[in-house]
Amino acid sequence: MDKHEYFMRLALQEAKIAAEAGEIPVGAVLTCNDKLIAKAHNQTEQLNDATAHAEMMVLTSGMSALSSKYLPDCNLYVTLEPCIMCAGAIGLSQIKSLHFAASDEKRGYHLYEGKILHPKTKVFTGLYESESAEMLKAFFKARRKHQGK
Predict the structure, then answer these.
(1) 10-residue averages of pLDDT along the chain (149 residues)
(2) DSSP-based three-state secondary structure for 91
(3) Spatial distance between the Cα atoms of 39 and 113, rounded to a whole number of angstroms
(4) What's the whole-model pTM score?
C-alpha cells in the first residue's frame, strides 16, 4: 500500500466514525512531509454547526498543530469532493495537494466556475472512490428508510 492509499484509508476510517455518530460520512486527513498531522470527520450534528465539515475541522487542527495559517507543505485527503466553503478554506490555506475520493455532483466545488483553490495546489481524484461513494449511498438510504421516505 502506498502512502496515498494509506492516508485515504485513514480518511475512510474517519468517515465511518462520522456515520456511526449519525453524521454524513466524510472523513479527512492532513499530512505534512508524509507525517499525519490531523484527522477529522463531519461533526455538524454533534456541534450543531453547519460549518463543522471534516475539511474545516482538519484544517483548523492542522494549523493549530503547525502554528501556521498556511499549509504549503501539507496534503489533504478527504473522502468526498469539498463543497465551495471547504474549497475556499483549502485555497486560503495554500495546501500543496488535495486528494479526494468521490465526486460530489450536487455540491462539489467543481460546480462553481473560477479559481477557488490556490494556483499551486495539485488535485488528485478517485482513490477509493467506490468505497466512499458506497458509504455515502448506504448512509442516505438508511436515513431515508428511518425517516419513512
Answers:
(1) 95 97 97 97 97 98 97 98 96 97 92 85 94 92 73
(2) helix
(3) 29
(4) 0.93
